[in-house]
Design a protein that fits this description.
It is built from 3 helices and no strands. It has a domain at about 1-45. About 30% of the residues lie in helices and about 0% in strands.
Length: about 80
């Protein structure tokens, strides 16, 4: 059998999130995100921005990073092949 599933009532969600969600000790990103829950305010900042300077290192550019060099196109990066012979 499967373990029982417990649900948090809607009215208790804010308290549950503020007291149990995120990393402990709180890092700057958790603090910023949970402040919006505590203040009942949704940030208008774009998800691709970092207003608090607390994450997204290196800064999000809006594009994926460049693929590693693979001169023989076998799917294995050249650096990996060179390092492992």
């Amino acid at each position: 059998p499967f373990p029982a599933i417990t649900y948090t009532p809607t009215g208790a969600l804010r308290t549950a999130l503020l007291n149990r969600a995120g990393a402990w000790p709180r890092d700057p990103m958790d603090i910023r995100l949970l402040e919006s829950i505590a203040d009942d305010v949704i940030s208008s900042a774009s998800p691709s921005t970092n207003p608090a300077g607390d994450g997204l290192l290196p800064p999000y550019s809006g594009a994926p990073p460049a693929a590693p060099l693979d001169t023989d196109n076998d799917g294995m990066p050249d650096a990996w092949e060179i390092a492992r012979g």
